[in-house]
Structures
1.
Amino acid sequence: MLTYLTAGESHGPELSGILTGIPAGLHLDIDEINTALSARQGGYGRGNRQKIEHDQVIITGGVRHGVTLGSPIALTVKNRDHAQWSEIMNPTSPATPENTLRKVSRPRPGHADLVGGMKYGHRDMRNVLERSSARETAMRVAVGNICKQVLEALNIKIIGYVEAIGGVNADSSQPTQVDTIVNLIEQNDLRVTDQSQIEPIHEMIDDAKRNGDTLGGVIRVVAENVPAGLGSYVSWDTKLDAKLAAAVMGVNAMKGVEIGDGFENAVHPGSQVMDEIDWQEGQGFSRNSDHLGGFEGGMTNGMPVIVKAAMKPIPTLYKPLQSADINSKEVKKATVERSDTTAIVPASIVIESVVSIELAKAITDTFDGSNIDRLKKQIADYRQELQNF
Ligand SMILES: Cc1cc2nc3c(=O)[nH]c(=O)nc-3n(C[C@H](O)[C@H](O)[C@H](O)COP(=O)(O)O)c2cc1C
């Protein structure tokens, strides 16, 4: 079973991950994982933390001479910033007045601080902040990129990018070809397809920063050449669109998920929404449009899988909102922790990663995922079978 777990605090020594269920025999491209990690650190509107970190993955299990063994893959990403926090975030040395400085007692509205403190009984909400921080998503990107490499071996392409920032749409063309999207988004530091929107968005982000404010946005993921029939209609918990929605909502700050034209579909009659079925000699069945984002009955239908995510603005504001001190109970401004103005660009890589994980999981749930060459053969045979259906 393909599954993963991450551990590690934002300013702790490192992030750790264990990923199981990756087929044996996959030639892992470590540079590709590191490229994804560095893409997660980039993008206009990020804070200074990214100048400190140079994320690189270290693999300590499950891979030999660059080839996966089928055993659990153990991963590490070091936190360079830990050097500044080595006393305060020391995992084992007993607490003293000196190493418990930088306590957090004024919770940030919109962050996990207050409720996390209440639930776990932390009087220093740094204990919450350190793990609820999106620093953890660096490990999800490393794990997700390994899954993306499984997809690539099966000729499935995937990309996550930015559709809109702070209410400005920069994706008027809504492409469904991954190569076209990659070509367009690589031309700018916002990961958007519409170059004409770059300057106004830069200005909007600069303005937000000057005002101590933050911005959210919309992310779009497209996966191409996904075979029909992943997931199942038979039970609620076998539906792959539902699993994708849960994985996307599991990413920090995501507050909405849409499959295909989800919300837009709700306002049109069925005749304008359903994707008409076509059949062609040598190609088999396809659809004339993709309003349903490649899903019918909780199963992929062979059209591009399209998933969108709505990200709320970053909760940490340099011009902080009202909070109340959990010790004195005085109403005061919230704590300020070093922060991004917008993290929509890195978040698009995180969303691409979690969608890659769910697709790789659906494939290895459906076919024998012990060995990559056997898996490739099964998928090729299955594609052939579908073509002749
Ligand atoms: C890539 C990424 C970077 C983020 N950076 C920050 C940040 O710098 N400051 C901040 O307050 N929140 C940041 N967030 C959002 C918080 O992690 C998130 O809002 C918080 O954990 C509370 O969870 P919730 O928004 O899902 O309720 C980031 C999220 C992502 C996906």
Note: The longest helix spans residues 344-366.
2.
Amino acid sequence: MKVTVVGAGAVGASCAEYIAIKNFASEVVLLDIKEGYAEGKAMDLMQTASLNGFDTKITGITNDYSKTANSDVCVITSGIPRKPGMTREELIGINAGIVKAVSSSLIEFSPKTIIIVVSNPMDTMAYLVHKSTSLPKNKIIGMGGALDSARFKYRLAEALQGPISDVDGMVIGGHSDTGMIPLTRLATRNGVPVSEFLSEEKLSEVLEATKVGGATLTKLLGTSAWYAPGAAVSAMVQAIACDTKKVFPCSVLLEGEYGFNDICLGVPVVLGKNGIEEIVKINLNDAEKATMVESAKGVKAVNDLL
Ligand SMILES: NC(=O)c1ccc[n+]([C@@H]2O[C@H](COP(=O)([O-])OP(=O)(O)OC[C@H]3O[C@@H](n4cnc5c(N)ncnc54)[C@H](O)[C@@H]3O)[C@@H](O)[C@H]2O)c1
């Protein structure tokens, strides 16, 4: 399994590190436009190999896409992150040009690749890759819901004062502060609905803290977060590499599913060797459906800016 990660910044490097540590890929190519930057990050990461016990070979490249040839999975993290007070949507002006050029260069050398889009505004960037390339829909996957769900589980465990490993839950909808939909009704603690343990008020606090999870970290760090985003991407790449058929909420092109068309939006999907193996249909209640419609409106408005 050869994986290319474009953008050797905070998220790209974290993603390469987690992929290597999990030891399922033979090769990770880190590519950046900044001269020597990816080479430096790759060398630094390779010097952790004997300490962390992995055999994955990490190579750093400055903008030479021929070195990415025949990648099974390509991850796009290139672009600018948000600063405190900014929304993800404000990044579109710069990131759209970068994502379009990067995806086209990747496909030139890896025509059969699966692309995972991370750069923000992610739902719109995933849509842009659909519109500007000829990759089939199962091979273009936006990463947002996997991260938002991990943040949701963190907040749930905090409220329950229990271990995160006991908690399950999912966030669907658009990857934005206003668009994401933490499914509190379906979240469980060891198989029992969390509503058995948490009051409505507490659950709504969890929901709100999850929605602003990225903004909270951006305020603390001065830029957007990288450990959990990198871990979320690596978990998705692992599901594809090992054909696990695990379910993740991902931003995928909808063609009638959940009642939407011509939009990339976060819904549960099965990930395996073909990328998106299946879009999973879950029954949403009326309130959740209405929130999903509002979320889609928000994403469409950003898509219109393209
Ligand atoms: N989808 C998500 O859940 C999620 C989570 C966190 C961050 N993000 C997004 O990921 C992106 C990266 O965030 P970051 O914190 O790693 O930023 P960063 O600034 O640390 O890294 C971005 C890297 O991209 C490189 N780059 C810029 N243009 C390029 C090009 N044309 N070709 C190759 N490399 C190029 C830069 O040199 C830089 O090293 C941002 O858009 C951020 O908003 C998304």
Note: The pocket of nicotinamide-adenine-dinucleotide is lined by residues 6-12, 32-34, 37, 77-82, 91, 95, 98, 102, 118-120, 122, 143-144, 147, 175, 223-226, 229 (CB under 6 Å).
